[in-house]
Amino acid sequence: MVENEQQIKVQPIKLGLVKVKVGAIEGSTLITHRLSGEAVADFMGRETGATTKKKLRDFDKEYESCFYYTDDKEYGFPASGFMGAVLESCIPLDIPKTQIKRSVRLLGGVYPLKYKKLNRRVDNPRRSGRNSTPDTRHRPEFINWECELTIQYDTNQISPDQIINLINQAGFSVGIGDWRPGSPKSSGTHGMFKVLATK
C-alpha cells in the first residue's frame, strides 16, 4: 500500500435543461437575411470592383436565399443567433461573458418559427464605402413570430432565473436578425423578443 495515498473525488457536472418559448415584443418584426456563399462573393465583388461584368439581379433568388431552414425544411432562425444575443446582454446584468460561455448551451441548429404573417420586404439601404448609392434588398419579414429555445446549463454555475433574465435582456437590448437594436451598423427596433413561457 502506498503511504499518503490521496483520494481524488470527481465532482460531477450537474446539467439542467429548460425550454423557453420566446416571441416578438409588440410591434417588432423579424427580418432574416442569411448570406449564402454565392451572395457574399457577389457582394464583395461589387464592393471591391472585382466584378466588372454587369448582370441582371434575380430578386426572387435573392429573397429565397435569405431564409434559414430547419432539417424539416421549415422556416427558422439559428440557435447561434440567439446565443450571440444572450452573450451581448451579459454587460447590463453584470454577468461575465466567460461564465455564460462555460455554463450555457443552446441545443439544436435552427429553431422553427411560428408566425401569423410573412411579408416580402423591399428596402433601399445605402451601401457603405466609396459606392454609397442605394441598394435594393428583398428580405423576409415575420410578423408576430415565436419559437422555442432548448437550453442546457450547468446548475453549479447558473440558475434558471438568471437564464430567463438573460434572455429577456437579450430580446430587448440586442435582438436578432436585421435592423435589430444591437446591430453594429444599422440599429433599429426589429428582432426584439421576450420570454412567453418556460417548461
Walk me through the structure.
α3 crosses α5 (160-173). The N and C termini lie far apart (51 Å). The strands form three sheets. The chain has a four-stranded antiparallel sheet. It has a three-stranded antiparallel sheet with strand order 2-8-7. It has one domain. The protein is built from five helices and ten strands. The model has no long low-confidence stretch (mean pLDDT 88). It has 199 residues and is of the alpha+beta class. The protein has helices at residues 37-48, 59-64, 79-88, 97-103, 160-173; strands at 15-24, 30-31, 68-69, 75-78, 104-107, 110-112, 117-123, 137-143, 146-154, 193-198.
Write the layout of secondary structure elements.
Blueprint (H helix, E strand, L loop, with lengths): L14 E10 L5 E2 L5 H12 L10 H6 L3 E2 L5 E4 H10 L8 H7 E4 L2 E3 L4 E7 L13 E7 L2 E9 L5 H14 L19 E6 L1
Helix pairs in contact: 3-5
